[in-house]
Design a protein that fits this description.
Elements lengths: L7 E5 L2 E5 L8 H8 L2 H13 L4 E8 L6 H14 L7 E8 L5 H21 L1
Parallel strand pairs: 3-4
Antiparallel strand pairs: 1-2
Helix pairs in contact: 3-4
Amino acid sequence: ESLVGGLIGLKFRGRTVLVTMHNVSVEPSLVDAALTLPSVTTGSAALHRKHPDRVVIVGVDIAQGLSGITLKLLAFEKLLTDYPVWKTKVVLVQKALVPRSRPHDEVNTVRELRFLVHRIVRNF
């Protein structure tokens, strides 16, 4: 059913469950501006010094099940499995933010992330 404010509601077991959708976009002008900040250029240089001769992939995501962060780690693992030549050529630096807005979900997601990171480090 359509609800006030453009929300979509589904009746499920006597309750109305809200369905929301969020488009993700990248604003090139904001990214370009951020890339010139001293903290970003300093951090970038430090990462390249720490991982010389490697492609550095950096991610910042919320540690919640629907954010896709676990899928990102699984995709990185798949890359290293399917293309072993990249084992010594790429590094993923991932920051997981825990806003504490969904505590149970965040605890489970962080647990899963730690498991995946340990598996990737162990295997590659």
